[in-house]
Amino acid sequence: MADHTAAGIDLQKVKPSVVEEFVTGAKKGFYIGAEMIAPAMVLAYVLILFLEITGLMKGVGKILEPVMTVFGLPGEAIFALVAAFFAKAAGCATAATLYSKGVITAAQATILFPACVTMGTLIGHFVRIVIVSNVNKKWHSLLICVPLVDAAVVMILTRAVLSVMGLNG
Amino acid sequence: MAEQSQEKYKVTWKGWLALIILIISFSGVFAKIDGPLRALDFQVLTGEFGRVSEGIIFTGKGGTGARDGFMFALTLFPTLMFALGCIQVAESLGALRAAEVLFRPILKPLMGIPGASGLAFVSSFTSSDVAAVMTKGLVEDKMMTEEERTVFVAYQYAGSAPVTNTFGTGAALLPISVLPVGVIIGLIFIVKVLGANLVRLYLSRLSGNRGEGGAANG
Lengths: 169, 218
Description:
Chain A: This is Inner membrane protein YjiG. Chain A is mainly alpha-helical. In chain A, about 80% of the residues lie in helices and about 0% in strands. Chain B has one domain. In chain B, helix 8 (about 130-140) runs antiparallel to helix 9 (about 145-155) and helix 9 (about 145-155) packs antiparallel against helix 11 (about 180-210). At the A-B interface, helix 1, helix 2, helix 5, helix 6 and helix 7 of A face helix 4, helix 8, helix 9, helix 10 and helix 11 of B.
């Protein structure tokens, strides 16, 4: 079906102007902001406030400290990764919240950035990519692990880049 | 049908220019330069909010909870609209087709997938769904094997649509990140290729000793 629409667009004689294209894209950006980012930010801020007031944040943070040090992150950073698992936007929003609370530094937020995008929205995209592209069922469990491994690697890689550039502060 | 229009399409100088400007703009190379070239940088053009008082923008200081979260989300709208507008324009000028010309010959050494998947490959930079549909079609048209598809999907699945999603879903971290957004996208791309190659390695080992294949899948 997508092929038909793609060919249909190619056949159209009248191409939208650059201005029209920009407006279309900017509108898309506005809707992403309204439909994904704003709800994710509200959720993330409320959740972090809840974890803070209940003291769960400090507790869980302490327990996970040794694991997260490998990536140059405090234990509390795990909340960003857990949120990212459900939605990329929620993960990034949580990381931003942790930064605004002073729990993580800007450099640590930068380490979380590519990781949240890499391992984000795993279930949703499983349907949209793995199921749609019709990959053989026997590789499904293997494919789920790939973004998680990639995310771990990208955190180490980003940390290395930051320390090479002297931005690790 | 998609294949036919793919053959006919010719990459124009506009496509190349759009691709080059997009890469320069997101890479942040001109961000700290004095003079007119700064006008090409994405962060510079995104600009700044005005200050309500000394060092404080309209979101205020000391807010908490849902209200503060909403105020922060408001600050991200200009970046999102500007970024996706630029990407849309670059796409319409043929920047993706230009990128396809660059990537097509190296797809085989990079991930072991055929050059015919070039259009799906470059589409996956900005869209999760288009590439997945194309991949299905490539296998159905016998232009890609079952194993190549698994490797290709491993690439697409991790960090899907990295260009759109780094701006879109990552909007909250854009103003905080100490690295230019182009570098972040580059890092995501590197691990995507790495992950795909791990799957490639795993699959080729598996077909090497097919007798004991199933047990290793975990």
